[in-house]
Design a protein that fits this description.
Elements: E1 2-8, E2 15-19, E3 24-32, H1 34-39, E4 44-48, E5 57-66, E6 78-86, E7 111-113
Parallel strand pairs: 1-4
Antiparallel strand pairs: 1-7, 2-3, 3-6, 4-5, 5-6
Length: 117
């Protein structure tokens, strides 16, 4: 199983294309804890308008980097940029019910995704 994370990201806010030929994008500035960053290495990210709608965009995580290194404490959440390669499999994915689903949730948190097939 691989790790994944879902975000509510309306109207593609903060997503920009770095390399259209390679399908490489970045999305900022997501609030993540160090353990979430580590768990998402080689994982997937999915962007949704709402939790009730399938993802409109997503793909394989290529890297995660903090926006600002000046953080109090090594366990503090920090704003991060996620670099990803867009994939067809990143579209039309339902919000993972194994993650956070309450009304105020803007992210699923890190969830395990079973391999396809």
């Amino acid at each position: 199983m691989s790790s994944s994370i879902h975000f509510i990201c309306r109207a593609s806010a903060g997503i920009r294309c770095l390399d259209p030929k390679a399908g490489v994008y970045e999305s900022e500035a997501w609030l993540l804890a160090p353990e979430e960053i580590g768990a998402l290495e080689d994982g997937e990210v999915f962007f949704h308008e709402t939790k009730g709608q399938p993802s409109y965009f997503g793909g394989s995580i290529l890297g995660i980097r903090p926006v600002d290194d000046s953080v109090a404490g090594s366990d503090a959440r920090r704003r991060c940029v996620i670099t990803l390669r867009s994939t067809t499999a990143g579209r039309n994915v339902r919000w993972n019910p194994g993650g956070k689903v309450h009304g105020m949730a803007w992210t699923s948190g890190v969830v395990q995704r079973a391999p396809a097939g």
